[in-house]
């Protein structure tokens, strides 16, 4: 799932979107020439992305390792302190991405709904809009929790009658979380699923996501709905019909790939937002270079960005070795467990 080579590093299944200066680098590298050069420049000059000024982070609170435990053992004081530190160190941020937990909702719908409402209020207090991620298909160590083929085959296709059964398991979750907040101005957009292509039968997942998108729309949501994909035009094309804007995860973003993404978005008259970026490293100086490269390239492309992730956490890929197992992503956090900013990570504020 995570490997490193001389060409690129990407999160989960190695999204190959590399770094470098943006449109100028595309042209000078020989990736485009002649008429294509002229068109590349025009694409960025004329690119009107309504999400270009979004600056923020993915946020996993420090105190637990799984979605179920984070939301069932909800600690509002941690949310408040850690989001407050985010605004202290990065005063220009305006958005935060939460990963929710259907598992926690299924055990205690009332408690989960109250916790979610409190988390929205805390973000609002700090001047932050929220992108709630409803489901997840990234599975690591420890497992955060998320969807699986067996779950969808039974609860959606068979027992759920493809979402039309009166007792369809996911409907109360959508009704309570999306429906009750369909007009909530504290929410910037809904993210149906984190990286749905990572595992399982894509045809099945696509059918479920399409039904989920329609369900959100039937509940009257005023906010846009999208799906965070880990990379490549094939994945963007697969979710185009269920994305009111495009959520991408451009780790080590290559200029020519971002150009292709922008052109696709312009063609479909949709915005683009990077809901994850900035690969991890335990070496602070190396990580700073990665942050500067990713954020610089995205800013020059007119794409807003939200690195993964704000605070050190027990969640996978977001901590040093003393807090759990490490993958090749090392740690992707900006603020450490003791509340201090990682050296050099204020570079984010330059973009």
Structure description:
By secondary structure, this protein is α/β, with parallel strands linked by helices. The protein has helices at residues 11-14, 23-28, 35-45, 67-72, 76-89, 102-107, 109-125, 149-158, 171-178, 202-218, 233-239, 255-267, 284-300, and strands at 56-59, 95-99, 129-136, 190-194, 225-229, 246-248, 272-274, 304-305. An eight-stranded parallel sheet has the order 1-2-3-4-5-6-7-8, covered by helices on one side. Strand 4 (190-194), helix 10 (202-218) and strand 5 form a beta-alpha-beta unit. The chain is globular, with a radius of gyration of 19 Å. The two termini are 30 Å apart. The relative contact order is 0.17.
| Number of helical elements | 13
Number of strands: 8
Low-confidence stretches: 1-38
Shape: globular
Radius of gyration: 19 Å
Helix content: 25-40%
- Average pLDDT: 89
Overall structural domain count: 1
The largest sheet has its strands arranged as 1-2-3-4-5-6-7-8
CATH architecture: Alpha-Beta Barrel
Q: Considering the protein shown, what is the CATH homologous superfamily?
A: Glycosidases
Largest sheet: 8 strands, parallel
The CATH topology label is: TIM Barrel
CATH class designation = Alpha Beta
Percentage of β-strand residues: 5-15%
What is the N-to-C succession of helices and strands?
Answer: HHHEHHEHHEHHEHEHEHEHE
Alpha-beta content class: alpha/beta
Termini gap? 30 Å
């Amino acid at each position: 799932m995570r490997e490193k080579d001389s060409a690129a590093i990407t999160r989960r299944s190695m999204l190959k979107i590399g770094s470098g200066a943006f449109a100028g680098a595309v042209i000078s590298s020989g990736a485009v020439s002649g008429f294509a050069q002229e068109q590349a420049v025009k694409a960025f000059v004329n690119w009107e992305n309504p999400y270009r000024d979004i600056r923020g982070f993915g946020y996993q609170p420090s105190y637990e390792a799984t979605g179920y435990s984070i939301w069932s053992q909800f600690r509002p004081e941690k949310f408040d302190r850690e989001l407050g530190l985010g605004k202290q160190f990065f005063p220009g941020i305006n958005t935060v991405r939460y990963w929710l937990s259907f598992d926690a909702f299924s055990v205690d719908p009332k408690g989960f709904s109250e916790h979610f409402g409190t988390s929205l209020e805390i973000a609002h207090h700090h001047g932050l809009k929220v992108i709630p991620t409803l489901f997840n298909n990234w599975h690591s160590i420890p497992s955060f929790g998320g969807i699986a083929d067996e779950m969808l085959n039974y609860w959606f296709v068979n027992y759920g009658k493809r979402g039309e059964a009166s007792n369809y398991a996911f409907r109360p979750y959508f009704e309570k979380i999306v429906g009750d907040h369909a007009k909530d101005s504290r929410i910037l957009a809904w993210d149906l699923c984190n990286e749905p292509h990572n595992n399982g039968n894509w045809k099945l997942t696509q059918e479920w996501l399409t039904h989920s998108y329609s369900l959100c729309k039937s509940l009257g949501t005023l906010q846009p709905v999208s799906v965070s994909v880990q990379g490549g035009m094939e994945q963007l094309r697969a979710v185009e019909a269920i994305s009111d804007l495009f959520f991408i995860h451009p780790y080590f973003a290559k200029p020519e790939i971002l150009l292709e993404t922008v052109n696709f978005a312009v063609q479909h008259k949709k915005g683009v937002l990077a809901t994850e970026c900035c690969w991890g490293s335990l070496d602070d100086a190396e990580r700073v270079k990665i942050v500067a490269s990713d954020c610089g390239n995205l800013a020059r492309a007119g794409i807003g960005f939200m690195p993964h992730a704000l605070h050190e956490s027990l969640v996978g890929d977001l901590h040093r070795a003393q807090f759990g197992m490490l993958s090749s992503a090392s740690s992707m956090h900006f603020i450490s467990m003791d509340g201090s900013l990682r050296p050099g990570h204020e570079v984010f504020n330059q973009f």
